[in-house]
Structure formats: C-alpha cells, structure tokens
C-alpha cells in the first residue's frame, strides 16, 4: 500500500477524513442556529466526553457550521492558570470583525469595540489603590478606537462579561444573525470565570439575545458548572460524546479507503473494532498503521495483527506515556491502584473496555492508607486532567484504555 495515499489522521484535534457517527450532533446544532436567528429561545451547548473521542474535532466542525450560517465566531482553549478575560475578548473581537462588514452603522461597531477594549484592559482590583498592573497585564488588544468608560470595566468579571456579551449580541441582532463563542477544555476555567460565564449565558437567554457559548470538556464539566451556579443544569444543553458504534467505526475506516479504491475484509474490520474499542483517535491510529503495513487490497485481519504492535507502541509513547510522565511517583502509585481496581469493577459491570469508575475508599484500602492522606494525589491528578470524579466518592480515567496501559507497565 502506498503510504503517501494513507487517508487516516491520528492527530490532536485533527479532523479525520470521514467524520462518522456525529450526524445527530451536527443536525441538532443546525436547528439551534436557525432557531436563534429567528428569535426563538435556545440554550448554549456543552459537549462532554473522554479524551480521544473527538470533542475538539466536533467543536471545530460546529464552528464551521456557524460560519456557513454567516454568524460571527471566535474560539479559545481554556487553561488552568489563565483568566478568561483576555482570551474571550480576543475571541469576541474576531466575531465582531466578521459581522462588521454587513453592519450599516460603523459607529455601532466602534462603540462595541470600545467596550471590548475596556473589558480586555481591565484587571481585577488588587486592593491597593494606585497600584500599577504588572507588565504581563498591560495588554493591547489591537483595537484602534478608544476604550469606553463605564461599561464592562468594573473589574468584576461577572458584571463585565454580562455587559460585554449583551452589547456584542445586539450587533449580531442588527445584521440578523448571531455570535457563537467556542471554548475547548472548558473544565480548566477558574471558579470565578465559570460563574461569570454561567451568569452571562443566563442573562442572555432571558433577553433572547442571539449569542451562545459552545463548550467542550471532560465528563465532569457538568459538575464544574453546577458548582458555580445551581441553575446551570437547566441553562445548558449537554451532549455526551462517546465512542463510535460498530457501524460508525466501520464507516470511519471504509469510506476514506474506498475513495482510494481500497477495501477491508470483514474479519479485518472485526479486529480493528476490537483493538480500537470504537474510540475515534484509536480508530485513526490503528487504521493508519494497518494501511502502511498492508501489502495490497483487500486489507485482511492478518495485516491488522502485523500492524497493531506499531499502533500500540505509538499510542504508548504519544497518547499514554506523555500523560503518565506528568505524574509524580505518589500520583503514579494512585493511578496504578486505580488501574488494578478498575479491571475488577469493569469485569463486575460487564464492561468491555475494563476501565470502570473506582471508589476512592477502595483505592485507599488497596494502598493501605487513610483516604484523607491520598487527597493531595487525587486532587493533583484531577487538576492535571488525568482522572475525574463523575460521582461523589469515585474516580475514573479521562483517557480511554489508560488503565489497560498502566496494567502492562512495570512497577
């Protein structure tokens, strides 16, 4: 097989050649865009799921849909150590610029840009009057108009964000479309920023303003939002992004191959689904390795067996190993115990991926420690995005098959 013609793309956020199994999500978002453009009420959208299920790819595809509907759009990636103020200002600046050429009143655009500039340059109060901002806070957002005063510049992120998004939404309403802000890794936002974002979405929904937030994050994102504002459970539409079923996984492999006049034998597809578990990133990784090793079409199960060790070695280094290396010895000990217990829990639940959620009390018992003494390791792993707590008293891996990987590593 010609490696140059290999159609598969196992990359971080890289769109696969065939976006299989996501038709429902795309159709739902089309309806959301149309309803908002017609003044109908709709909720902002939150995509949740494990790593490797294609949340970022789907987020980018939804943004493309919004652009095709002539919406203004902007995208950011949240970081644990970064305030929301600057990134969302940059994203909103891009969205307003996309709408500006279709607006009949340049003064209205300049007014919103002035508010945006004031919002971007305002830092939270330090408690010491007259204290100059640090050098890293002296940021110029690249807006020529002067900063507005008395609007979105109080220093309280919750007040300022509501005012800013309301003004931007009014510009979108003027041109008969909307604004969509896309936020990846949303679980990494700080508590104040999450609270401010929820408050802004709540206010905009009550006003019927044509602006929505589309977030993507790990499975515990709903709990993060709920901890910030109790009404967030009703404020957003949540969509769980999971692994592909067998039909969709086969489509992800076969459709790109058919465009290159290549076929798979049924047994090869059986084995590829068994190896990948239907997780989109793994489907691409095993598909790419299999293509490179197969001598000819049709691709057989023997080709898959020959190629699988290479795919697994690449995953062990780039997908699993890089995450494992970020953990301290104490954190690795915690995860190893999780991996052993998740096999037992998964077997008891009849799960075929064998990475079930594990009670934290069982981890403490397995390590012969008191639960309180393990809290620092657990909290650090959650902060690093390696595990999450979907239910009180339990933890699970954010990366599919991570437990299986740990069980193969020497202690």
Would you kindly provide a written description of the structure presented here, covering whatever features stand out?
- The protein has 411 residues and is an alpha/beta fold.
- The protein is built from 16 helices and eight strands.
- The chain has helices at 23-37, 55-68, 85-99, 106-121, 157-174, 191-207, 221-228, 232-235, 246-259, 266-276, 280-293, 301-325, 329-349, 360-367, 375-383, 402-407, and strands at residues 44-48, 72-77, 179-184, 211-217, 236-240, 358-359, 387-388, 394-397.
- A five-stranded parallel beta sheet has the order 2-3-4-1-5, sandwiched between helices. The chain has a three-stranded antiparallel beta sheet with strand order 6-8-7.
- Helix 6 (191-207) links the parallel strand 3 (179-184) and strand 4.
- The longest helix has 25 residues, at 301-325.
User: Total number of helical segments?
Assistant: 16
First-to-last CA distance: 39 Å
Contiguous low-pLDDT stretches (5 residues minimum) are: 124-133, 346-352
Tell me the radius of gyration: 24 Å
Order of helices and strands: HEHEHHHEHEHHEHHHHHEHHEEH
Identify the strand order in the major beta sheet. Answer: 2-3-4-1-5
* Assembly annotation: single chain
Into which percent range does the helicity of residues fall? 40-55%
Measured by DSSP, the beta-strand proportion falls in 5-15%
Globally, the shape reads: globular
SS-based class: alpha/beta
Largest sheet: 5 strands, parallel
Can you give the mean pLDDT? 88
């Amino acid at each position: 097989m010609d490696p140059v013609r290999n159609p598969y793309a196992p990359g971080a956020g890289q769109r696969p050649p065939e976006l299989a199994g996501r038709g429902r999500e795309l159709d739902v978002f089309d309806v959301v865009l149309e309803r908002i453009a017609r003044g109908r009420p709709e909720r902002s959208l939150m995509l949740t799921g494990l790593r490797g299920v294609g949340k970022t790819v789907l987020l980018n595809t939804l943004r493309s849909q919004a652009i095709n509907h002539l919406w203004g759009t902007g995208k950011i990636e949240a970081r644990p150590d970064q305030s929301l103020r600057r990134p969302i200002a940059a994203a909103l600046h891009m969205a307003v610029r996309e709408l500006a050429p279709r607006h009949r009143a340049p003064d209205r655009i300049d007014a919103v840009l002035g508010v945006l500039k004031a919002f971007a340059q305002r830092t939270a109060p330090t408690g010491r009057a007259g204290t100059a901002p640090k050098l890293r806070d002296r940021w110029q957002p690249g807006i020529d108009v002067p900063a507005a005063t008395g609007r979105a510049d109080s220093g309280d992120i919750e007040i300022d964000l509501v005012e800013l998004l309301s003004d931007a939404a009014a510009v979108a309403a003027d041109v008969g479309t909307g604004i969509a802000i896309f936020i990846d890794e949303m679980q990494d936002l700080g508590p104040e920023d999450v609270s401010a974002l929820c408050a802004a979405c709540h206010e905009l929904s009550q006003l019927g303003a044509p602006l929505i937030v589309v977030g993507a994050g790990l499975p515990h994102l709903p709990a993060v939002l709920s901890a910030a504002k109790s009404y967030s459970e009703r404020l957003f539409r949540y969509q769980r992004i999971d692994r592909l079923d067998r039909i969709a996984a086969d489509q992800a492999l076969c459709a790109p191959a058919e465009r290159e006049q290549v076929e798979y034998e049924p047994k090869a597809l059986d084995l590829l689904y068994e190896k990948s578990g239907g997780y989109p990133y793994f489907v691409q990784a095993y598909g790419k390795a299999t293509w490179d090793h197969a001598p000819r079409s049709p691709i057989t199960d023997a080709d898959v067996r020959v190629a699988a060790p290479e795919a697994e070695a690449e995953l062990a280094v780039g997908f699993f190993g890089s995450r494992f290396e970020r953990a301290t010895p104490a954190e690795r000990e915690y995860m190893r115990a999780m991996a052993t217990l998740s096999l037992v829990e998964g077997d008891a639940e009849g799960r075929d991926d064998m990475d079930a959620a594990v009670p934290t009390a069982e981890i403490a018992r397995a390590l012969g420690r008191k639960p309180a003494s393990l809290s620092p390791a657990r909290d650090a792993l959650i902060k690093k995005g390696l595990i999450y707590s979907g239910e009180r008293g339990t933890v699970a891996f954010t990366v599919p098959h991570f437990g299986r990987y740990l069980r193969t590593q020497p202690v």
